[in-house]
Amino acid sequence: MIALWDLGNVVVDWDPEGILKSLAFSERQTDTVRQQLLGHSDWLDIDRGVATEVSVGQRLIAETDLTSEQVQRCFEVVRESLTDIPRSIEIMQRVKAAGIPMYVLSNMGDVNYRYLRTRDYFDWFDGIVISAQEKLIKPDPDLFARVIDRYRFNASEVFFMDDSLPNIEAARAAGMQALHFKRSDQCYAAIEKAFGL
């Protein structure tokens, strides 16, 4: 069996509403960030690697009343919010200790990935696939096919964990086993069962 982990909301927190609250902007500015950044197609383009924080920030400054300092703060707060989920780190450590190969497949912009990459547990992974570096994002079937081809996986031996149901459905369509991860006791028990922990 092979463990294939998503990062956001599986290994690290991803809470857009919490990010908005911690910015402590006015209600109108908070709505702007919600609609024009975190909920905008530009955010997916950052994940896809076809836009950068700089280019998206320039658009925000030009098209909204946010200052350059506020825009920069948005990106900083996003990174600060990517805190480890302790229970996930613990079970990942157990999977690694059991000798099970571990990989990452995550939708993430390059700057945020480089920010996370320094954490010790990234040394546990045998391979890491980040959407921005591939110019593809989940649930694109081509991204799942690329992972399978790159690491010569037998898809049926891959157990994929992701918080997004469309991503889970795409993984299953590619022949993988997949768990719709919700941080519940049941989810962690399912991981233990899958890897015989």
Describe the overall structure:
- It contains 11 helices and 5 strands, in the order βααααααβαβααβαβα.
- The chain has a 5-stranded parallel beta sheet, sandwiched between helices.
- With 197 residues, it is α/β, with parallel strands linked by helices.
- α1 (16-23) runs antiparallel to α2 (27-38) and α6 (86-97) runs parallel beside α11.
- The two termini are 12 Å apart.
- It is globular and about 55 Å long.
- The protein folds into 2 domains: 2-13 and 83-195, HAD superfamily/HAD-like (Rossmann fold, 3-Layer(aba) Sandwich); 16-81, no CATH class.
- β4 (158-162), α10 and β5 (177-180) form a beta-alpha-beta unit.
- The model has no long low-confidence stretch (mean pLDDT 95).
- The longest helix is centred in the middle third of the chain and has 14 residues, at 68-81.
- The protein has helices at residues 16-23, 27-38, 41-48, 53-63, 68-81, 86-97, 110-116, 131-134, 141-151, 165-173, 185-195; strands at 2-5, 102-106, 127-130, 158-162, 177-180.
